[in-house]
Amino acid sequence: MAEQGCQGVHIHPEYTSPRLVTATLVKLHEWCPLLAWLAANTLPRIAPTPSMREGRRSHTREELRRVAEELGLRRPAVQVALASTQYGATGTIDIIDKETGTIIEVKATARRKPHRSHLAQLAVYTLLAAENNLKPRRAAIATPEPRIIAELPADTYTLQWARNLIQRTRRTIESPIPPLVTQPREKCRYCTHRHTCPYPNLD
């Protein structure tokens, strides 16, 4: 049976168990630590938003292969699921080119300049690829057109950043108490977890 957390939030009964940190949780944590905690610990399933549905459409294997081809990648693999037992992390890379060591994360709703949270997710993918001996050299965020809008080098700085991101995310989601976070009201208004948030900021 679920335990009662802060202000009636239902916490998953295994919240104290060590868990794998997904690249998506890291992305959520960089956007809002509370959002990552809610995604990892609360029971209700959230209905997909229009942007989430658009993202799913752009992540079919056929669509990812098209993006890879138009980007000129010669040996692309798509939807590559990876894990690191050393760092307790998992993630599914959209595209990785085995010839050039290029990682591509496709964002359907990407802007001209991606949010830091998307770069954080990309850094974790880079670490996972390195841990699985895929020899990444560069990582990039692309739109479905496709158009590269951001890049990260697969260097020691990026890998260490990814390790730190995983550690911070794990500390947050394994806490029995949600982090106290204050966000701009505009940011909270369209949050998919606003109805289960213990600190609503919608007034």
Characterize the largest beta sheet: strand count, sense, and whether it forms a barrel.
Answer: 6 strands, mixed
How many helices in DSSP terms?
Answer: 7
Terminal Cα span: 32 Å
- The general outline is globular
β-sheet strand percentage: 15-25%
Per DSSP E runs of 2 or more residues, the count of β-strands stands at 8
The secondary structure category is alpha/beta
Instruction: Give the low-pLDDT segments.
Output: 1-17
What is the CATH topology? Lambda Exonuclease, Chain A
CATH architect. name? Alpha-Beta Complex
Average per-residue pLDDT, rounded, comes to: 84
Class, according to the CATH hierarchy? Alpha Beta
Please bin the fraction of helical residues.
25-40%
Order of helices and strands: EEEHHHHEEEHEEHH
> Number of folding domains?
1
Radius of gyration over alpha carbons? 17 Å
Summarize the structure in words.
By secondary structure, the protein is α/β, with parallel strands linked by helices. The chain has a single domain (3-189), classed as Lambda Exonuclease, Chain A. It has helices at residues 23-31, 33-41, 50-57, 61-70, 116-131, 156-173, 185-189, and strands spanning 3-4, 10-11, 21-22, 76-84, 89-97, 102-106, 138-143, 147-153. The strands form 2 sheets. Strands 3, 4, 5, 6, 7 and 8 form a 6-stranded mixed beta sheet that branches. β7 and β8 (147-153) form a beta hairpin. α1 runs antiparallel to α5 (116-131) and α5 (116-131) crosses α6. The relative contact order is 0.19. The model is unreliable at 1-17 (pLDDT under 50). This is CRISPR-associated exonuclease Cas4. Residues 50-198 form the PD-(D/E)XK endonuclease-like domain. It comes from Pyrodictium delaneyi.
